Amino acid sequence: MAPDTGTAATDVKPLVDGVTGQQQPQKSAPKPRTRNRKKEESSDRGAKRRCVYFTDCVYDPNSDHRRKGVYKNDIDSLKTRNSTLQTLIEAILNYSEEDVPALVRQIRTCESLDDVAEAIVAKEQGLEEEDDDDDDTVSTYDVSASATPCAPTFETQLSGRMGELRLDDGSVRYIGGTSNLIFLGEDGGATAMQRQSDQYQQQEDPITSWTEITSDPDLVVHLLNMYFTFHYTYFLTLNKSLFYRDFLLGKPPPDTRRKTEYCTPLLVNAILALGCHFTSFPDARENPEDSATAGDHFSKEAKRLLMENDEHEKPKITTVQALALMSVREAGCGREAKGWVYSGMSFRMACDMGLNLDSGVLTSNNKSSLDDEEEDARLITFWGCFLFDKCWSNYLGRLPQIPPSIVTVPKFDVFPAEDADTWRPYTDSGFTQAHAQPARTRAVALQISGLCEISADLMTFFYNPIDMDKAKGKQAELKKLSEIHTRLEAWRKNLPKELELREGHLSSVLTMQ
Questions:
Q1: Residues 217 and 270 in one domain
Q2: What is the pLDDT of residues 396-427, one digit of tens each?
Q3: For 124-142, how does the pLDDT look when each residue is reduced to its tens digit (9 = 90+)?
């Protein structure tokens, strides 16, 4: 069959030039195809190219004015972007420390950096009116009503939620960024606490109101003195002044809205149980004739309160403290397994409340920021847990449950007035003046926390079950031992002179050494 001789050429529509966009007139029909067509095309290929319909195609770059516009737009866009970035960087460098975090958060969550930069320029030029009203969606760096605010989207809200401290039924808890609980609103627990209002009337006998075991206020005071003289000074885990402030008010009546934050029946009974071990008073024993039952009645009361009131389900600083004290008493009575459980409950609750984290960072955007008293109580409680953890770790030869890697909270402050309080030995006959001296309770506790950090490294290196079957090599072990020994020597060398060993020194210093 003879080949087609180009009859389809009459159906060819006007072509549109792919470069200029101009409509072109029809060209003459192509020549009939022949077997020598390929040879003819190959000879013309070096001179010019042909379009799909064999029409001449010529490209003149000088005639393409649209591309010049594209290049100009790209250059202008690049200049604008550089200007925006420069404005943002200069703002971060020049703003005060307290303003920079808010600006960075806006940069990270806003959909238009240009809007942020324009707001900054407007603010610097005095074109933006100061707005004193708090707005959760528009920060002080946004342009005022004339500009489009950076409306938060689900993605921006999610990216900004990296964890926070939150009031939950009157207690501060840490909610991490991966938890869906972080998207639930706060329950207004702060109002339930009523720190400065709804003061209840002081009870007729506030000292004995905290326990059902005894109605003798002298016994309660005696046991408290024993605890604070000999146990508290080494195992520092609560703020003594805050505890006594609430303790002396007495247990709140059931119908009051006010809650005592730093003293609860659970904590008081745990303290009294420990105080019983430093006295020979018959009433300090469950069986007055059996010294082995010292403190058992107060301990059983603490355990009853823990379970019947579901205290283990309600994160509180006082519950963290009580559980830690209960754990160490169980160990002293030879019940290591039970004590280990109580210590674990204490440490988990401490982490649930975020005591191991720097609350100054977590509450920077939290309207319910912590006051100085609560901040100090959190610091004291955490580092007390840190000490209990290392004591248990060394006692049982197990890895620490609170590794230094999860700790960002700073050490607590030493208050000169508190550390200058007089410490005196206390016996069943009362206080004695022999060896009276400044208590230095917090100064000693800071030194003990340093020892705990060294101890944690030692236990992790030598007693990690994962590495038990791995031969580290004698040289590696000797090197680690040498490092630990060097750190211990440095710790001892850097001890303040007033904490060096001497006769009649503080019981806490003697125990520390």
A1: yes
A2: 988 999 988 899 999 999 988 889 999 999 99
A3: 776 544 444 444 433 433 4
Q: How far is CA 255 from CA 123, 193, 200, 403, in A?
A: 53, 14, 10, 42
Residue 212 has pLDDT above 50, yes or no: yes
Would you say 411 and 379 are in contact if contact means Cβ atoms under 8 Å apart?
yes
Calculate the alpha carbon distances from 422 to 136, 202, 435, 438, 447 in Å: 50, 29, 10, 5, 20
Coil vs helix vs strand at 422: strand
Q: Are residues 199 and 227 in the same domain?
A: yes
Full DSSP string of 41-82: HHHHTTT--B-TTS-B----GGG-HHHHHHHHHHHHHHHHHH
Q: Are residues 41 and 79 in the same domain?
A: no
* Long-range CB pairs of 46-52, under 8 A, 24+ apart, other chains included: 51/15
- Read out DSSP for 246-289? HHTT-PPPTT-S---SS--HHHHHHHHHHHGGG---GGGBSSTT
The answer to whether residue 341 sits within a structural domain is: yes
**For 295-339, where are the E strands, in sequence order?**
none
pTM for this structure? 0.63
CA-to-CA distance for 461 and 393, rounded, in angstroms? 13
Q: What does the alpha-carbon distance between residue 360 and residue 470 come to, in Å, rounded to a whole number?
A: 41
Decide: residue 496, CB within 10 A, 0-12 exposed, 13-18 middle, 19+ buried.
Answer: exposed
Q: Tokens 């029809």 correspond to what residue?
A: 26
Which strand (E) or helix (H) includes residue 507?
helix 507-512
Structure tokens at 480: 């680690």
Q: For residue 113, which of 145, 141, 93, 88 has the smallest C-alpha distance?
A: 88
**Residues 6 and 29 sit within 8 Å (Cβ to Cβ):** yes
Whether residue 434 is found in the same domain as residue 407: yes
H/E element holding 109? helix 100-109
Does residue 330 share a domain with residue 206?
yes
35 plus 103 within the same structural domain: no
What span, in angstroms and rounded, lies between the C-alpha atoms of 455 and 459?
6
- Report which residue type is found at 411: K
Taking only the tens place, the pLDDT of each residue in 234-262 is 999 999 999 999 999 999 887 666 567 89
pLDDT digits (tens, 9 = 90+) for 362-397: 654 444 567 889 999 999 999 999 999 999 999 998
> Are 98 and 211 in the same domain?
no
